[in-house]
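Q&A log
Question type: sequence-to-structure
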Amino acid sequence: MTATICAVTPVAARFRFSDDNPLTLEPYARSRFDDLPGYAQDVVENRLGVKPAAWDALVDQGEAYGTTGYRRAYSITGWLRSTRQHRHGTPPSGVCAECWGTCVELDTDGSLTGTVDQPVVCFCADPRRVVYPVIRERRTPTGPFRDGWPGAPRDCR
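Response status: OK
Response body:
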């Protein structure tokens, strides 16, 4: 049997629009509205007062930094607090049960990151998600044989 270890992408408590968007691996300021994680969408709409279509136009024109500032940092603490308050019961149908469609889940028991309630990019949305198989090595008459990579499971859940 092959075990797997999953790499997760923690979400920092603050971000800049010049930082890489964990969903697209490009700066947030170059990501269309639908490609932003929930916390960045919240900043665009509620703190900057920019509608999704207007944000997409700014991105297309390369003008998003004029609205967000290149070095200005935005906290996700308020968004996390609001998100925690609304996640009770069963998630709406058609969305990921882990992140409720926000692309960010909480490591509620610390098993993924070692920190309780650390936000991480959800497995459903993380393009950097890498599953590393635990390779077992055994000896054969012709030398070592590595067991585990071909056909190793790609899903952590």
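Response note: The chain has one domain: 4-147.
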